Amino acid sequence: xxxxxxxxxxxxxxxxxxxxxxxxxxxxxxxxxxxxxxxxxxxxxxxxxxxxxxxxxxxxxxxxxxxxxxxxxxxxxxxxxxxxxxxxxxxxxxxxxxxxxxxxxxxxx
Length: 109
Known about the structure:
Layout: H1 4-23, H2 27-52, H3 58-88, H4 93-97
Helix pairs in contact: 1-2, 2-3
């Protein structure tokens, strides 16, 4: 199989992920878009590893590390989203920016 086919699929996946991050404000959709982008990176790693044929399987090894990091990221992200939903009843990313505490202002005496 030519190398261009998995690379084109990876480009499409990555572009869909970027669109999902930039256009959507729902935190769950943003997490899914991050996962799409990481899957596109994994596809590139495995495709280049199969194309290079060095026998070390470095691309596949790096893909396993990316999958591990993605699993940790999704676990932490879902925990934050659940806390946001329990506390405020929404998972809107724009509204979550407003939750930052304002700096304390000393009262003039």
